[in-house]
């Protein structure tokens, strides 16, 4: 789980009386959640902007123009933002919020994961299939291990034991969605070579895990103590 950065919160506060926008915190990688007011690293949050029509618009790619309103990538906290009118308060204007915003953002987060997995395959950074993943793990050249959230526990457990404590493991998608992302009829296990794309998928998978509805399949992550998370 991504942890809140609590040090020096008072010094980087961007409350309504400071005149400083939330996107101008002391550290370039920190943003403040408009609900919890916790200062977090950007990968732990979802960026929103207000479009010209006053609608709250999710910006997972963090490229849309306008002042960013950041919310922790957690379904319950996002629901609070909607229920407590946090977007309007943070933007200091009347805004329109889709009541199904949490579902919409979760769908976008899922699409982000699927697109990145597809990119990893196209770039030759991904291998799929139990035997191939097992062989690569034994060779010690895996940056991220991916499993279908509804895959058999025995297979997932065996690969997890081979991965050890130095490889991050995630199960952001069920088997059908993982297969679709890979353009295959069936997929349960995949692995990504160490590098930027592995980091990006791991980050997206953690965000999806926080945004997934309770009781749904998908969105599982396991970050080993020795694994390091980079921000991009």
Short structural summary:
With 232 residues, the chain is an alpha+beta fold.
Walkthrough of the structure:
The protein is an alpha+beta fold. The protein is 35% helix and 16% strand. It folds into two domains: 10-99, YlxR-like (Hypothetical Cytosolic Protein, Chain: A, 2-Layer Sandwich); 105-222, 2-Layer Sandwich (60s Ribosomal Protein L30, Chain: A). The chain is built from seven helices and ten strands. The strands form three sheets. Strands 6-9-7-8-10 form a five-stranded mixed sheet, with helices on both faces. β1 and β2 (39-41) form a beta hairpin. The longest helix has 22 residues, at 101-122. The protein is elongated, with a radius of gyration of 19 Å. Mean pLDDT is 84; it is low at 1-23, 214-218 and 223-232.
What share of residues are in beta strands? 15-25%
- The number of helical elements comes to 7
* Helix-strand makeup class: alpha+beta
In the CATH hierarchy, the third-tier topology of the largest domain is known as 60s Ribosomal Protein L30, Chain: A
Mind telling me the CATH class of the largest domain? Alpha Beta
Average residue-wise pLDDT: 84
Under the CATH scheme, the architecture of the largest domain is 2-Layer Sandwich
- Give the tally of structural domains: 2
Sequence stretches where pLDDT stays below 50 over 5 or more residues: 1-23, 214-218, 223-232
Q: CATH superfamily assignment of the largest domain?
A: Ribosomal protein L30/S12
What sequence of helices (H) and strands (E) makes up the elements? EEEEEHHHEHEHEHEHE
């Amino acid at each position: 789980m991504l942890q809140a950065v609590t040090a020096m919160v008072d010094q980087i506060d961007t409350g309504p009386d400071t005149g400083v926008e939330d996107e101008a915190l002391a550290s370039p990688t920190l943003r403040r959640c408009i609900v919890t007011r916790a200062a977090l690293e950007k990968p732990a949050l979802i960026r929103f902007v207000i479009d010209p029509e006053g609608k709250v618009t999710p910006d997972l790619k963090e490229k849309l123009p306008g002042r960013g309103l950041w919310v922790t990538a957690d379904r319950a906290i996002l629901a609070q933002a909607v229920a407590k009118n946090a977007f309007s308060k943070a933007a200091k204007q009347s805004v329109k919020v889709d009541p199904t915003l949490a579902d919409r953002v979760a769908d976008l987060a899922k699409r982000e994961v699927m697109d990145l997995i597809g990119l990893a395959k196209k770039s030759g950074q991904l291998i799929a299939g139990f035997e191939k993943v097992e062989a690569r793990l034994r060779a010690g050249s895996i940056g991220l291990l991916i499993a279908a959230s509804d895959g058999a526990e025995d297979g997932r457990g065996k690969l997890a034991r081979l991965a050890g404590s130095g490889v991050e493991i995630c199960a952001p998608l069920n088997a059908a969605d993982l297969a679709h992302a890979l353009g295959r009829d069936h997929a349960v296990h995949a692995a990504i070579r160490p590098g930027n794309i592995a980091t990006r998928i791991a980050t997206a998978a953690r965000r999806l895990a926080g945004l997934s509805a309770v009781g749904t399949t998908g969105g599982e992550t396991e970050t080993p103590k020795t694994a390091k998370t980079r921000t991009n």
